[in-house]
Amino acid sequence: MTVGHPPAWQQQAAPVPAPGPWATRASRSSSFWRLVAVEARKLVGTRSDKIVMACAPVFLIGLMALFTLPQTNLASAGRQLQPMLLVIQLGLLLVFATVIKLVAGEWQYKSVQPTLLVQPSRMRYLLAQGTVLAGVWLVCSLVTFVLYPLLIKSAAQGLGHNYLLGSRPGWVLGVTMLATAQVLLTALIVSLLIPNTGGSLTVFFVVVPMLAVARLALPEVFGLIYPLEAAWHMAGDGAGWPQTISSLLVWLTLLAVSLVVLSRRDAG
């Protein structure tokens, strides 16, 4: 008598092996602060990024000296503060270039895919990047706030003028933080709307400075769309409330449009 296989109804399925610890970790969503840490590392992810960020403070100090020491009229607080607005827009170009590369480059080279595979929420991803940019904003603002008064004080005293910004540190800090935030938001908006590193850098480094020159020539006209108009207004040299309000509305609208475009952009 041959022994056959038991009927199908008596056969038992092989036990499923228990998932290993790697599967448990994979099933968990990454914490928000871990995403922030990942985005922060991307700022210095390559050797060129490290070199650019290392050169950024030297470039900033050099531009500060260029715009402060040759000044010939520093008799008022407004005159002493105005060069700082140019310093912020131009002296932090290396930092803003790295930010543009971080935001636009991820979509151009599709390196955003691993991040969205780990956590598919684009809003969470944007908030993580926004937290990193907020840290960059604070560092840049504080460095400028500490270094600029030292140079402008030296320039004012060299001309025989009193240093007037020391008695209004809150005003100086407010203008510094507002101007830095507006330039950084401009870089973010451009990089979100143009997901190409070269294109974003071209627009930011060519069109935005040209807009600044045009604003100096015709503030009543170009102040309506100049991204730093609110900072100039706060510094006491704005074109007026209509220009300030119009500028804020234009760039806040562009920010909203860029977020909508990001939410619908194909990551494949």
UniProtKB/TrEMBL annotation:
<feature type="transmembrane region" description="Helical">
    <location>
        <begin position="125"/>
        <end position="151"/>
    </location>
</feature>
<feature type="transmembrane region" description="Helical">
    <location>
        <begin position="201"/>
        <end position="225"/>
    </location>
</feature>
<feature type="region of interest" description="Disordered">
    <location>
        <begin position="1"/>
        <end position="22"/>
    </location>
</feature>
<protein>
    <recommendedName>
        <fullName>ABC-2 type transport system permease protein</fullName>
    </recommendedName>
</protein>
<feature type="transmembrane region" description="Helical">
    <location>
        <begin position="51"/>
        <end position="69"/>
    </location>
</feature>
<feature type="transmembrane region" description="Helical">
    <location>
        <begin position="245"/>
        <end position="262"/>
    </location>
</feature>
<feature type="transmembrane region" description="Helical">
    <location>
        <begin position="81"/>
        <end position="104"/>
    </location>
</feature>
<keyword id="KW-0812">Transmembrane</keyword>
<feature type="transmembrane region" description="Helical">
    <location>
        <begin position="171"/>
        <end position="194"/>
    </location>
</feature>
<keyword id="KW-0472">Membrane</keyword>
<keyword id="KW-1133">Transmembrane helix</keyword>
<feature type="compositionally biased region" description="Low complexity">
    <location>
        <begin position="1"/>
        <end position="15"/>
    </location>
</feature>
